[in-house]
Design a protein that fits this description.
190 residues; Alpha-Beta Plaits; two-stranded antiparallel sheet; 2 domains
Length: 190
């Protein structure tokens, strides 16, 4: 993962072609849309995105997804698939394909000229190699919160909610007088 200092994020090199910042890596891949397939691709992307939106948070966190975009451009002739994630390249792709099924990936990739005829039989390295065939490393990549994973951020949100519940209790002002709690209360005051 990454080593974090008070002044700088220093990430260890991850596998794959993407750039990384802290614990987060990116993929930017570009493909050509088959002529006449733009609307079918839009429908497939809608289905894929719906599956992402409906997936349990734990599932998404398991393979490290932070965000994912599908962008149709150049008058409906090109597709950019962009994503960022916290895990390493190999488990990110392998786990996400395994969890959603190769069919969901094929649903949209089949509309790209580069998609091999045997896509549904691909797994592991051949599948990753296909995706990387359209990948270009970002010339610049920045994440505002690059030193924290989504599970760490979600935990911080749960702790904040629990603290708010404690602070709402009538006896909280008495219980929270202990000097050891001063930093927590000062942080909560923001």
């Amino acid at each position: 993962m990454a080593t974090i200092t008070a002044e700088t994020n220093v990430g260890t090199k991850k596998s794959g072609k993407g750039a990384n910042h802290g614990v987060v890596s990116e993929v930017s891949a570009y493909f050509h849309i088959k002529p006449g397939h733009t609307e079918a691709l839009r429908g497939a992307i809608d289905r894929f995105q719906a599956a992402l939106h409906q997936a349990p948070t734990e599932l998404i966190q398991r393979f490290g997804l932070q965000d994912m975009r599908h962008v149709i451009f150049d008058g409906g002739t090109r597709l950019n698939w962009a994503t960022s994630f916290e895990t390493d390249w190999e488990p990110y792709i392998d786990d996400s394909v395994r969890m959603f099924g190769i069919e969901k990936w094929h649903d949209w990739f089949q509309h790209c000229e580069e998609c091999p005829d045997n896509f549904l039989q691909l797994s592991g390295k051949p599948l990753r190699d296909f995706i990387q065939s359209g990948q270009v490393q970002a010339a610049g990549f920045f994440k505002t919160i690059s030193d924290k994973t989504i599970p760490e951020l979600r935990k911080a949100m749960r702790v904040e909610k629990a603290l708010d519940q404690v602070l709402e209790q009538p006896e909280a002002s008495t219980l929270l007088q202990h000097p050891a709690l001063r930093p927590l209360l000062e942080e909560a005051a923001d």
